[in-house]
TrEMBL record:
Signal peptide bounds: 1-23
Name assigned to this protein: Transporter
Classification lineage: Bacteria, Pseudomonadati, Pseudomonadota, Alphaproteobacteria, Acetobacterales
Keywords for the protein's UniProt record, in alphabetical order: Signal
Chain spans, region Disordered: 38-83
Biased composition (Basic and acidic residues): 43-52
Comp. bias (Low complexity): 67-79
Top-level division of the source organism's lineage: Bacteria
Length: 377
């Protein structure tokens, strides 16, 4: 976990600096923006995300809910030169970045995704890319549907049910599989949606197949409960005649126990194996930027790093008569995710783009075209 701690420390320092600068900008704009009915951080002002900002993707930028600033007296406001408020901007959200807790109790956000996985080699322990045929594993297609509900104006619950299907590489197809299910609570520390700081805490539930498989491609789970925790920040700034939204985050998944393994498993064991497997912590960290082209059209870009610590396996294969004690090494990849958003209204939008791993070590490389539709109610 040493590497993950370094990333979390770096990003937390960035959160503090960027949040402070952005908060000053919004404090100066609040009095004007409150009277201008300009959007908040989601899609538009007509609805707090439905009136404040939409979520996991959406967000309209400008007068959010900084009541303390809005309550500022007229003489005090007049002492400072007026700043031009941020223009109204509609967002769907970038391909990969998480989002803050929803701003309104009872608000619902949904975002169904479809993503393909196109094998394109593998990175070895030295970071060299092997592009020989079959090095990247199987082709795959996944469908996952983000769902979020606002419990209070600061606390939301988040679910991400995922189905996947894989095939190719001289291996039998996996069939349609339901993966491990993430369940997470998100708490926004700030009274406003942008700028904001949100904390995440939840679990991955072991609902995916991971042992007694017909072939390794059927493994879509870890067989253990895992804690999920992280921190997220977002803020918005002027970008020519439009607005730019920036997000920074760090997230960790931490399995809390080992699991029984039998035969072919997602831990890489073969038929005849009996023993236990322990998955190490893994996670991701990075940033995204969304640049308004028009009020409806947005260019989005994710720049992030995924990492995984060692997994270990201990047991015995009754067919080969061998005791097995194996441990994988650290793995990681740096990824770029460009995308184009189009927002039909302040609360409905879509995005298409592709995730491209550009560097890494001890991991397969898969190019992932994606498309999603976002809606908030």
């Amino acid at each position: 976990m040493k590497k993950s701690v370094r990333y979390a420390a770096l990003l937390s320092s960035l959160f503090v600096g960027t949040y402070g600068a952005s908060a000053q900008l919004y404090a100066a704009d609040a009095a004007i923006a409150a009277n201008a009915s300009v959007g908040t951080d989601g899609k538009s002002v007509k609805k707090t995300d439905k009136k404040t900002p939409p979520t996991s993707g959406t967000s309209t930028v400008a007068a959010t809910q900084n009541k303390a600033v809005q309550a500022q007296s007229a003489p005090a406001a007049a002492e400072k030169p007026a700043h031009k408020p941020l223009p109204e901007q509609w967002y769907t959200g970038s391909l990969y970045s998480p989002s803050p807790a929803l701003p309104t109790p009872g608000m619902i956000a949904v975002e169904p995704y479809v993503a393909a996985g196109l094998p394109a080699g593998a990175f070895d322990s030295n970071g060299h890319l092997n592009t020989r045929k079959g090095a990247g594993g199987q082709h795959s297609i996944s469908q996952f549907s983000l769902a979020k509900y606002g419990i209070t104006d600061h606390l939301s619950i988040y679910l991400l049910p995922t189905y996947s299907y894989s095939w190719g590489n001289h291996t039998k197809h996996s069939g349609l599989k339901f993966n491990d299910l993430p369940v997470e609570f998100q708490y926004r520390l700030t009274p406003h949606y942008t700028p904001s700081i949100t904390l995440y805490f939840g679990v991955n539930t072991p609902t995916g197949d991971y042992k007694n498989l017909s072939n390794a491609s059927e493994g879509v789970g870890q067989g253990v409960w895992a804690l999920r925790y992280g921190v997220h920040s977002q803020f918005a700034l002027p970008f020519f005649k439009h607005a730019m939204r920036v997000r920074l985050w760090a997230q960790v998944r931490h399995p809390v126990a080992s699991t029984k393994l039998r035969n072919i498993t997602s831990y890489g064991t073969e038929k005849g194996f009996v023993g236990r497997g322990h998955a190490g912590p893994y996670g991701n960290d990075g940033g995204s930027v969304e640049l308004g082209i028009t009020k409806k059209w947005v260019f989005a870009l994710d720049l992030y790093h995924t990492w995984s610590t060692s997994n270990s396996v201990n047991g015995y294969n009754r067919y080969t008569k061998q005791y097995i004690h194996s441990r994988t090494g650290w793995s990681g990849a740096f990824n770029v995710g460009p995308g184009i958003e189009y927002n039909w209204t302040s609360s409905v939008g879509g995005i298409v783009g592709v995730i491209l791993p550009v560097a890494g070590h001890n991991t397969s490389r898969s190019i992932s075209p994606q498309a999603a539709v976002f809606a908030v109610f």
